[in-house]
Structures are given as C-alpha cells and as structure tokens.
Amino acid sequence: HYEVAGRAEGRGFARVPSREEIVRAMVDTAGRGVELGPLNQPMMARRDGFDVLIVDYLDTDALRAKYGTDAHPDVDPAVIEEVDVVSRGEPLVELLGVEGAFDWVVAGHVIEHIPDLVSFLQDVERILGPEGRLALAVPDLRVTLDHYGEATSTGQVLDAHRERRTRPT
Questions:
Q1: Which of 132, 101, 135 is nearest to 20 (CA)?
Q2: Burial 92-118 (b: 16+ CB within 10 A, else e)
Q3: Can you tell me the distance from the alpha carbon of 46 to that of 92, in angstroms, rounded to the nearest whole number?
Q4: Cα distance between residue 96 and residue 115, in whole Å
Q5: Which pLDDT band, with edges at 50, 70 and 90, does 169 fall under?
Q6: What is the pLDDT of residues 51-73, one digit of tens each?
Q7: pLDDT band at residue 151, thresholds of 50, 70 and 90?
Q8: pLDDT digits over 89-147, tens only?
Q9: pTM, whole model, 2 decimals?
Q10: Rounded Cα distance, 37 and 138, in Å
Q11: Which residues 6+ apart lie within 8 Å of 78 measured at CB?
C-alpha cells in the first residue's frame, strides 16, 4: 500500500512495532509476571530475560506432541515455552495460590477463549499487585480467520458472567 499510495502522497515510512514491543511497553518488564498460553510465540520469554511464570492448558511435553505435527506447520515445537503451571480452567488465584504477587499478566490471543470474561478480569486483578497491569493481544476481527464471525456484544459478556460459564459457547 505504501508503494502504491503512501510514497506518491509524500508520506514517510515508519516501522510498525511488533506485538512484543507494544505489550512490553505497557508493563514493568523488570517485574515478575505471568504469561498465559504463549505456545511458541511468547511475548515475555525467559530466553529474553523476563521473570515469568508460564500458565497453559497442557504441560510442555503435551503441547510439543500436539503442535509438533503436520497439522500445525507454523508451530516450531522447539521454541514452545516451558510450562510452569497447567490450568484446567480454575481461577488464577486458586491455581497460583497467591494474591497481589505479580507486576504484570500478559496474554496473546487467549481472551477469545475465556468463557467468563468478567470473572477472568476480576481474577487477574486479584493476582496483580497494586500497580500491576494486564496486557492483552486480542484478535482483530477484520483480519483473523474468524472475520466472518460475529463480534461478542457487551450483553453476551455479561450473560456469560451471570451464568458463570466455564466453557466457551
């Protein structure tokens, strides 16, 4: 698009920051945090020096076995982050056994799998310290595989909370 329109209009070309750069700018990267479901694309990888607890729905070996197949050619199982805690959908405060212990929680493309968004946000608030931050990378309905799907309404989010859903619809 830049070559077709931008250059002709005299607009400058600027590098677009990566999702990791955007998310890292939102949190205290010197602090301790939790990353939810990073698979092979962690935003706060230990190999990059972050003090991070990894939570996922399967352990490391199970993730590598599931995603290290021809069915998932875009996933390199060698770079799947080591999972510290396996979640079965229980509240984070229950799973981790702490309150107010983290400076940040990061999740990339996880929020769309959360059946009760309100309870999730309340739970994250409980494990964060007073200055803690939640940083989310969320799907852009305009450019995802689900672009033909319907966006979730506020009413649907509130219904899910009222019903205390534990599984996505």
A1: 135
A2: bbebbeeeebbbbbbbbbbbeebbbbe
A3: 20
A4: 20
A5: confident
A6: 999 999 999 999 999 998 899 99
A7: confident
A8: 899 999 999 999 999 999 998 988 899 999 999 999 999 999 999 999 988 777 666 66
A9: 0.86
A10: 13
A11: none
For residue 156, pLDDT over 90 is answered with yes
Q: Which DSSP string do the residues of 49-97 spell out, in sequence order?
A: T-EEEEEESS-HHHHHHHHSSTT-TT--GGGPPPPSEE-SS--HHHHH-
Percent of the chain with pLDDT over 90: 71
Yes or no: say if 33 and 52 are a contact pair by the CB < 8 Å rule. yes
- State both tokens at 91: 């509240």
CA–CA dist 109, 151 (Å, integer): 15
Contact yes or no for 43/52 (Cβ under 8 A): no
Tally of CB atoms within 10 A around 85: 14
From CA 71, how far away is CA 154, in angstroms rounded? 34
Q: CA-CA distance, 149 to 4, in Å (whole number)?
A: 31
Alpha-carbon dihedral angle through residues 103, 107, 112, 113, given to the nearest 10 degrees? -90
Exposure string of 51-75, with b = 16+ CB inside 10 Å and e = fewer, is ebbbbbebebeebbeebeeeeeeeb
